[in-house]
Amino acid sequence: MRVPPLPHAGRRAGPVSAEIPPGRMRWEIRPAGRGWDAVRMAATLGRPVLAQLGDAAAVYYDDGDLIFLVPYDSGGGFGPGTEYLSIGAWLFMPGPQRRQGPGVHWLSGHERARTSPETLRAALDAVRQQAPEADR
């Protein structure tokens, strides 16, 4: 059986680039503060918040945290247990087709969607009010 030559046969050695179809990347590193900001929180807080927001959220899972995408310059003020990420922050973001783990993946929405900051703050307040005093 004859084996066809590799596509790069005869070329000089150089950096290897694996071609991955668009949308199939597991994740990419993206800078916050360019059209969007993010609010990071532990999954223990984020999952009940996501349950309140439903499909109105643009959120993904990353290593035990939930990352909610909000419009650029939403101003922070999301309260205890959250980290507001904007200019200067770089985040791992799942590829558009990553809808399940393991690893970084979308739970709701997509990279071009945004969570309303007012709605996110209201959901966080509601979840905190339901939590036992020791968990706040």
Keywords:
alpha+beta; two-stranded antiparallel sheet; disordered N terminus
Textual characterization of the structure:
With 136 residues, the chain is of the alpha+beta class. Helices cover 18% and strands 26% of the residues. The protein contains two helices and seven strands. The protein has helices at residues 43-53, 117-130; strands at residues 27-31, 36-42, 59-62, 65-71, 82-85, 90-94, 105-108. A five-stranded antiparallel beta sheet has the order 5-2-4-3-7. Helix 1 crosses helix 2 (117-130). The model is unreliable at 3-17 (pLDDT under 50).
Give a short overview.
The chain has helices at 43-53, 117-130; strands at residues 27-31, 36-42, 59-62, 65-71, 82-85, 90-94, 105-108.
Question: What are the SSEs and their pairings?
Answer:
Layout: E1 27-31, E2 36-42, H1 43-53, E3 59-62, E4 65-71, E5 82-85, E6 90-94, E7 105-108, H2 117-130
Antiparallel strand pairs: 1-6, 2-4, 2-5, 3-4, 3-7
Biggest sheet overview:
5 strands, antiparallel
Give the DSSP E fraction (strand runs of 2 or more residues).
25-35%
Secondary structure tally: strands? 7
| Lateral arrangement of strands in the main beta sheet | 5-2-4-3-7
Structural class: alpha+beta
Series of H and E elements: EEHEEEEEH
- Oligomeric category: single chain
Q: Give the averaged pLDDT, no decimals.
A: 83
Distance between termini?
68 Å
Shape: globular
Q: What's the tally of helices?
A: 2
Evaluate the radius of gyration: 19 Å
Name the poorly predicted regions. Answer: 3-17
Helix share of residues? 10-25%
